[in-house]
Amino acid sequence: MNLIEVRNINKYFDQPTRMQVLTDVSLDIEKGHFVSITGKSGSGKSTLLYLLSTMDTAFEGSIRINGEEMQGKRNRWLADFRNHHIGFVFQFHYLLPEFSVLRNVMLPALKLARYSPAEIEQRAMDILKLLGVDGQATKRASLLSGGQQQRVAIARALINEPLIIMGDEPTGNLDSQNAAIVFDLFRQLSSERGQTILTVTHDDDFARRSDKVIHLVDGRIAG
Ligand SMILES: Nc1ncnc2c1ncn2[C@@H]1O[C@H](COP(=O)(O)OP(=O)(O)OP(=O)(O)O)[C@@H](O)[C@H]1O
Predict the structure, then answer these.
(1) What is the CATH number of the domain that holds 108?
(2) Is the distance from the beta carbon of residue 32 to the nearest atom of ligand 1 less than 6 Å?
(3) Total domains in the fold of the chain
């Protein structure tokens, strides 16, 4: 089953002058697949990811996620859709440094309020354990190493059990050992839990080992 179906996307930026950044992009992503978006700097990778994340609504074409058309939806509807279905991991983790690791992971779930705070805390601890950072739960986020902080950011992305985890260079700031831990975790989430992983990466090795590579050349899908 295709979880994401993109048809004939064109994307323009108007500043400083009108420029077409994505041209006639169509693609399918199956549920549970681990997909990498690759291409040279400026080829449109982040722009495409941002569109698929539903945060940028100015585009021509169609994006269907989990059977829902994103084109033309109101911002509030999209924000709700994201909170329920999409988890994000960026190159820089954007944790709240003054808050504990546990609190950082719990926050998106407290916002959604689908479970009680006690249940959310238990779930957050389970995910931190899965990522091997449960021993750091009560520490301030700023006291962890870069690799540990990135794992906490992934735990935060997982707390609402998203259908899709999206990453913009999620291993870009990590040494090879920590990058391998993150890669293995994504692999495990897709193969064992059926979560769909979509990441922009410059790392050829990372891309080669994913299920599918979407390669952009000057805003078009190559091949
Ligand atoms: N908000 C914006 N306004 C105007 N132009 C933009 C904007 N964001 C991106 N661009 C332009 O769109 C093109 C594609 O940018 P994008 O960031 O998607 O590329 P990328 O492949 O992710 O690059 P990198 O690997 O360097 O991050 C570039 O020419 C960039 O300058």
Answers:
(1) 3.40.50.300
(2) no
(3) 1
Report pLDDT for 185.
87
116 lines ligand 1 (CB under 6 A): no
Backbone torsions φ then ψ of 167, nearest 5 degrees: -135, 135
Please give the number of the atom of ligand 1 that sits closest to the Cα of 202.
Answer: 25
For the cut 70, the answer to whether the pLDDT of residue 183 exceeds it is yes
Q: How far is CA 104 from CA 24, 45, 73, 164, 223, in A?
A: 39, 28, 29, 20, 41
Q: Which domain holds residue 78?
A: 2-221
Residue, of 131 and 40, whose pLDDT is higher:
40
Ligand 1: distance of its center to the CA of 126 in Å?
37
Residue located nearest, by CA, to atom 12 of ligand 1: 21
Contact between 51 and 11 under an 8 Å Cβ cutoff? The reply is: yes
Q: Measured from the CB, is residue 12 less than 6 Å from ligand 1?
A: no
What are the tens digits of pLDDT across the range 50-80? 999 999 999 999 999 999 999 999 999 999 9
pTM, full prediction: 0.91
Q: What is the ipTM of this complex?
A: 0.96
Regarding the beta carbon of 38 and ligand 1, being less than 6 Å apart is answered: no
